[in-house]
Amino acid sequence: MTTAEEQRAYRIEDLSHLSGTTVRTIRAYTDRGLLPKPERQGRANVYDDTHLARLRQIADLLERGYTLASIKELLAAWDAGTGLGGVLGLVGEVDRPWSDEAPARTALAELTDAFGGVMDLTAVEEALRLGVLEAVPGHDDEFLAPSPSELAVAAELHRAGVPLAAITGHLREVRGHVEHISERFLEFTTEYVFQRFLQHPPTDEEAAEAADLIRRLRPLAQQTVDAELARAMRLRATEHIRRHLGDAAAFTPPAEQEPPGSGAEAGHRSSAEGAPPEATAPAPSAGTVPSAAPSSTPPSPPSVLVPLPAPTVAAVRELVGADRVPAFVAAAADREVAARRMDALADRPAAP
Q1: Which residues of 246-271 are buried (b: 16+ CB within 10 A; e: fewer)?
Q2: pLDDT by residue (tens digit) across 129-155?
Q3: Residue 321, number of CB atoms within 10 A of its CB
Q4: Going by fewer Cβ within 10 Å, which terminus of the chain is more open, N or C?
């Protein structure tokens, strides 16, 4: 055995010292197939520079955040003749952050000011569990916000009157939907774009091509979600407002109504004929307009759909709060309707 060969042969203790890996870990790597089995010389196991290089590669990949399972797949691809550089470039492209937003540090005092000036440690612990905040080692009163914009949205919702418990509950619900969307997008692109790269360990050229495809497809998921969310919000918001305020605004105060057949009512119907459907009132049906003819039931007021004036809505909002406007308007309308029915009963002549 030459001097050069002796320098390339290591006992497990020597390999442990040179690589910075414990003897126990080296044996575990060997059992899991991450490390080639050593050569048996007599009663001793002998390692060489191949083992030392492999241990250093494993340590480097662990520092970059790869799991042992993914490292085993990468090393197997390399042993099969695929350049590790191309594979690492592909995996690195996948692991790259999917947002340009930079994390930001925030102090506990800043969080307290942003959320109403009251320190709520329970809410902070919940934010840590959700990943909205991350602890900063050695700083109990300082946190890292991976997405400052998400934290700002929560603060704005809280200032608008949404309780913290409702905000965190909403975040959990939204996160579940978004994770489902991301899973479906990955399944879709894997089936139609990346399936050909999964049949065998990719070569350097194939890995580079796949990494380029990921760079091109990366923004498509967010663009699709943004466009569809804007579309859904435009439609649903209109339906939501009409559902909650449409019935409450579907009454005309009695003082603004004229007796049936009067000139004012006729003029109102004439001007309404040229208005768009959402701004006009449906024609009163038979039996809904009070008349002089006797009837067995009290007449109901005519159903006229007239949007409330903006100043009126603003005044009601200032009086009772934005969340109580529909209930207040509905109650006021019910009271007016009941008053009109009572007036009609009082004015009706007694039956013979």
Answers
A1: eebbbbbeeeebeeeeeeebeebeee
A2: 999 999 998 888 999 999 999 999 999
A3: 11
A4: C
The pLDDT score that the predictor gives to residue 88 is: 65
Q: Which pair of tokens denotes residue 343?
A: 């007036």
Q: What DSSP line would sit under 166-208, residue for residue?
A: HHHHHHHHHHHHHHHHHHHHHHHHIIIIIGGGSSS---HHHHH
Both tokens of 24, joined, read 């126990």
- If you compute the radius of gyration of the chain from its CA atoms, what whole number of angstroms results? 36
Residue with tokens 């497990």: 12
Grouping H, G, I as helix, E, B as strand and the rest as coil, residue 135 is strand
Q: What is the pLDDT of residues 220-266, one digit of tens each?
A: 888 999 999 999 988 888 777 777 776 544 444 444 444 444 444 44
What distance in Å separates the CA atoms of residue 251 and residue 185, rounded to the nearest whole number?
Answer: 48
> Are the C-beta atoms of residues 316 and 329 closer than 8 Å to each other?
yes
| 105 SS3 class | strand
Residue with tokens 């903006």: 310
φ, ψ of residue 328 to 5 degrees: the values are: -65, -45
How many C-beta neighbours within 10 Å does residue 310 have?
Answer: 8
**Residue-wise pLDDT tens digits, 181-215:** 989 998 888 888 888 777 666 677 777 888 888 88
Q: How far is CA 124 from CA 96, 103, 107, 161, 323, in A?
A: 28, 17, 11, 18, 27
| Distance, C-alpha 227 to centroid of its chain | 14
